[in-house]
TrEMBL record:
<dbReference type="InterPro" id="IPR015815">
    <property type="entry name" value="HIBADH-related"/>
</dbReference>
<protein>
    <submittedName>
        <fullName>3-hydroxyisobutyrate dehydrogenase protein</fullName>
    </submittedName>
</protein>
<feature type="domain" description="3-hydroxyisobutyrate dehydrogenase-like NAD-binding">
    <location>
        <begin position="183"/>
        <end position="302"/>
    </location>
</feature>
<dbReference type="InterPro" id="IPR029154">
    <property type="entry name" value="HIBADH-like_NADP-bd"/>
</dbReference>
<keyword id="KW-0520">NAD</keyword>
<dbReference type="InterPro" id="IPR008927">
    <property type="entry name" value="6-PGluconate_DH-like_C_sf"/>
</dbReference>
<dbReference type="InterPro" id="IPR036291">
    <property type="entry name" value="NAD(P)-bd_dom_sf"/>
</dbReference>
<feature type="domain" description="6-phosphogluconate dehydrogenase NADP-binding">
    <location>
        <begin position="22"/>
        <end position="180"/>
    </location>
</feature>
<dbReference type="InterPro" id="IPR013328">
    <property type="entry name" value="6PGD_dom2"/>
</dbReference>
<feature type="active site">
    <location>
        <position position="189"/>
    </location>
</feature>
<dbReference type="GO" id="GO:0016616">
    <property type="term" value="F:oxidoreductase activity, acting on the CH-OH group of donors, NAD or NADP as acceptor"/>
</dbReference>
<dbReference type="Pfam" id="PF14833">
    <property type="entry name" value="NAD_binding_11"/>
</dbReference>
<dbReference type="GO" id="GO:0050661">
    <property type="term" value="F:NADP binding"/>
</dbReference>
<dbReference type="InterPro" id="IPR006115">
    <property type="entry name" value="6PGDH_NADP-bd"/>
</dbReference>
<keyword id="KW-0560">Oxidoreductase</keyword>
<dbReference type="GO" id="GO:0051287">
    <property type="term" value="F:NAD binding"/>
</dbReference>
<dbReference type="Pfam" id="PF03446">
    <property type="entry name" value="NAD_binding_2"/>
</dbReference>
Amino acid sequence: MAASSSNAYTTFNRDADMTLKTGVIGLGNMGGGMAATLAGKGFDVSGFDLSQAALAQAESKGVKPVADRKQLIQSVDILILSLPKAEHVESVCLGAGGISEFGRKGLVVVDTTTSTPEMSRKVAAELAKTGIAFIDAPVSGGPKGAATGTMSMVIGAEDADLARVMPVLKGMSGTRVHVGQCGAGNVAKIANNMLAACHLISTAEAVAMAARAGVDPEKLLQGLNAGSGRSGATQVMFPTWVLNKAYDSGFTMGLMRKDVGLASDLADSLDMDLPLSRVVAQLWQASSETLADNEDFCAIVQRTDATLYGHGE
């Protein structure tokens, strides 16, 4: 199957597609934003979360709260997962009281969790036995992207399954790239986050070096973004969350450490030696000595220069 972009799926019957019932399991910073975005655009959206506060917040944004996970699984045509880790995806999909037990034939599961390609393929194979399709579609763009429908998705899916859920995906995201079959989405997302982890540290070092040499960091970023050194770190992370010392991206150190670990595990499984990535992974893991899991992931730059990048008072 050839990978394709979202441009292949540009026409759909809006009225018919809006009648598809969509459920979201996991109404945190990301899942809650996705559900609210869809509800705001008129989709029929229900949601489940273990947190009553998250359920209440979603309800205030037009999402129908469902207190029982089984009930949600049984009642929807498309089920979106937004969960912390791969093991949570496996539990919800294949565990007792989960999707494999109560999902209806024809259900399509869209997993937006940054997970492992192996887990995605395992879950897809098991769910296929009961007539349920599984798509891995991890997302980038943070809570703001989820809340505004501007986040990006890299998708691993069969063409027919993707075509069926595309109206919903278009309703909750700004960019969608179909990179291959199930599992490919998480491979692409892991590669993306590996680069983001590298770029954030290398940018911190470059900016600190230039600042020590007398160049204003904001002026430097203008120069970098006009040249070949630009990246998401120079264009978004530093101007939005670092130089102003806001550190409020909504993405935590713990989550980035998890993603860096996924990249290391994937490289190991492929018997690849990636020297730069290995060193960067070591820096992220070592940061746990001074930066708690719940701190913003951009705070990693403070290990390069605590004075330049330290929290503002």
